[in-house]
Write a structure and sequence with these properties.
This protein has four helices and six strands. It has helices spanning 3-15, 19-22, 43-51, 112-117, and strands spanning 26-34, 39-41, 58-67, 70-79, 82-93, 96-106. Strands 2-1-6-5-4-3 form a six-stranded mixed β-sheet. A hairpin with a 2-residue loop joins strand 4 (70-79) and strand 5.
Length: 124
Amino acid sequence: MDINNFIIEYWKNIASQNEMELKHYFHEDACIRWHNTNEQFNVSEFLRANCEYPGDWSGEVERIEQTGNIVITVTRVWAKEMSFHVTSFFEIIEEKIKTLDEYWGDDGTIPQWRKEMHIGKPIR
């Protein structure tokens, strides 16, 4: 299994809200957790949350790391006026996702208090 291709294609299907393709990535009894909002989903609930959410989404995987059967990704996901970064921990068993733990964060501007400190610089 080419894990990089698996992850990149997975995120393309997330961004395009392709429910028919996405369900093939998961074990039937997979567990998905969004820790920022204290939510846990089964596969069908996760697909509803992703595929029925309005908007025209795009995504770009910025980093992929693997240790054993755990794959960690950092991905930027955006729509017209929203942008997020998500750190995801995939447990891959038999070439399918068994568990997925995600931590979402809103992208934003530098807070004024740090600007006033004159510290740091833009990443890009």
